[in-house]
UniProtKB/TrEMBL annotation:
<keyword id="KW-1133">Transmembrane helix</keyword>
<feature type="domain" description="Oxidoreductase molybdopterin-binding">
    <location>
        <begin position="305"/>
        <end position="435"/>
    </location>
</feature>
<dbReference type="InterPro" id="IPR036374">
    <property type="entry name" value="OxRdtase_Mopterin-bd_sf"/>
</dbReference>
<keyword id="KW-0812">Transmembrane</keyword>
<feature type="transmembrane region" description="Helical">
    <location>
        <begin position="30"/>
        <end position="51"/>
    </location>
</feature>
<protein>
    <submittedName>
        <fullName>Molybdopterin-dependent oxidoreductase</fullName>
    </submittedName>
</protein>
<feature type="transmembrane region" description="Helical">
    <location>
        <begin position="71"/>
        <end position="95"/>
    </location>
</feature>
<keyword id="KW-0472">Membrane</keyword>
<dbReference type="InterPro" id="IPR000572">
    <property type="entry name" value="OxRdtase_Mopterin-bd_dom"/>
</dbReference>
<feature type="region of interest" description="Disordered">
    <location>
        <begin position="187"/>
        <end position="217"/>
    </location>
</feature>
<feature type="transmembrane region" description="Helical">
    <location>
        <begin position="116"/>
        <end position="138"/>
    </location>
</feature>
<feature type="transmembrane region" description="Helical">
    <location>
        <begin position="246"/>
        <end position="266"/>
    </location>
</feature>
<feature type="compositionally biased region" description="Basic and acidic residues">
    <location>
        <begin position="187"/>
        <end position="198"/>
    </location>
</feature>
<dbReference type="Pfam" id="PF00174">
    <property type="entry name" value="Oxidored_molyb"/>
</dbReference>
<feature type="transmembrane region" description="Helical">
    <location>
        <begin position="150"/>
        <end position="170"/>
    </location>
</feature>
Length: 436
């Protein structure tokens, strides 16, 4: 009997804990608005990154400013991190509404709840694998991260659009309007305590905050059983987090994530880059690397004294030894390596222009170029470059980094460096350039 009483009391306290000023329609709409913006930003920047890596034949891309991809992908990763506290905050705000009785009341209600389940599930998977990808935990994925991440983005945005369409009347009502509770959780005098249109409304204060209470069925009997327990002592009002305090906590969580990770993308925050997997100035030649020469299995082939770079345009083929490349006119470019994982860092690169090598084999101005690396395994051993990048004056076959020959991990003997391109397309350990 004592155990039963304690269980009843515990459940009663749990019900009471659900009653909080932060669980109301206005909070849900505000959080939904912020979450929607973050997801749209992630979706747009993700599409741009995907298009750069898999361009359609008709696509062209801007090459200026040279930091365009650095900013785009940095915003993508940062917005994705912000989605995490916003999503959990939104689930917290609407938590009681997720367990309604009956579970489904109509076809429209079924669509609403199905869209919520799909959106929440897909969002959690999308954010989680994205976060793991930034730390390069690829071994945890029994699938292609890039293709699954791309496909899931459409699932997330599609289910979000359905959810918005179903909830549009409530969103419109509470987009600007302050609801029945002020920032400290007190019921406004102008509001009816039994407002039937309030989406979190109910006949008493607890129900107004936690959702309609069922009066029949299994759930109704469970509530009646819980209510037979002695009511717990009312909590100290100072211990109840106000809506203002709730939003402050969410803002602090999001701010900490941004401040302690965005330094890998934006140098101004590098001093407090405590949580990100990459940091400026750390790595060979003071530049981070993702894939080492050992991991790419190119240590022998890259150091082969007989290495040559083959440049081909149909029947015209030329091979350049390292000494021949070094004898060509060199140019300097101050460009960032900006990786899909979100980190980036500027460096001084030097080498012959790619367009000069293409001109040596008579390549047309509008030629696309297939770039082949010495690495035999991996998704980016062979990449393609569209004409606007191939002909850009800042696109180099780099032989030097910060005034020194390339470190083996940075692509020795030669690598591609181009403005406004993902780091995975700045191919290292060059073997062949082919006009297509």
């Amino acid at each position: 009997m004592h155990v039963t009483w304690r269980l009843q009391r515990l459940l009663h306290q749990f019900r009471h804990a659900l009653a909080t000023p932060s669980r109301n329609a206005r909070t849900a709409v505000v959080l939904g608005r912020l979450l929607g913006i973050a997801f749209v930003v992630c979706f747009a920047t993700g599409l741009y990154s995907h298009a750069l890596q898999d361009p359609a034949p008709w696509m062209t891309f801007p090459t200026r400013p040279s930091w365009l991809y650095q900013a785009s992908q940095g915003v993508h990763i940062t917005a994705g991190l912000v989605c995490l506290p916003l999503l959990f905050a939104k689930l917290y705000a609407v938590f009681p509404q997720l367990f309604q009785t009956p579970p489904v009341r109509s076809v429209a209600h079924l669509v609403e709840r199905a869209s919520i389940a799909l959106f929440v599930g897909a969002s959690l998977v999308q954010i989680t694998i994205g976060l793991l990808n930034t730390y390069q935990f690829y071994g945890l994925f029994p699938f292609s991260f890039r293709h699954v991440h791309f496909a899931l983005s459409f699932v997330v945005v599609g289910s979000l659009a359905i959810h918005i369409a179903v909830k549009l009347p409530i969103i419109a009502r509470y987009w600007r309007r302050r609801d029945a509770y002020d920032a400290d959780g007190r019921l406004r005098e102008t509001e009816s305590p039994s407002d039937p249109d309030h989406p979190f409304g109910a006949p008493d204060e607890l129900q107004r905050r936690t959702g309609s209470r069922p009066e029949s069925g299994v759930t109704g009997r469970l509530f009646a059983w819980i209510d037979r327990a002695p009511a717990p002592e009312p909590p100290d009002e100072r211990a109840i987090v106000s809506r203002r305090g709730f939003f402050a906590a969410v803002g602090v969580a999001a701010g900490v994530l941004v401040a302690f990770t965005a330094g890998q993308s934006f140098r101004a925050l590098d001093g407090i880059n405590l949580l990100a997997p990459r940091k400026n100035g750390v790595g060979p030649q003071s530049l981070p690397v993702n894939r080492t020469a050992k991991a790419a299995d190119v240590e022998e082939s890259a150091m082969d004294p007989d290495w040559t770079l083959t440049v081909a345009n149909r029947g015209t083929v030329r091979s350049f030894a390292y000494a021949e490349l070094a004898a060509l006119p060199h140019h300097d470019a101050w460009l960032p390596i900006a990786c899909v994982e979100g980190w980036s860092q500027y460096a001084a690169w030097r080498g012959p222009r790619l367009r000069d090598l293409l001109d040596a084999v008579g390549a047309p101005e509008d030629a696309r170029v297939r770039i082949t690396s010495l690495q035999q395994h991996g998704s980016y051993g062979v990449t393609e470059m569209t004409p606007e990048f191939a002909r850009d004056e800042l696109t180099l076959v780099a032989l030097q980094l910060d005034g020194e020959p390339l470190d083996l991990d940075h692509g020795y003997p030669a690598r591609i460096i181009a403005p406004a391109r993902p780091g995975v397309l700045q191919t290292k350990w060059l073997a062949k350039l082919e006009v297509i």
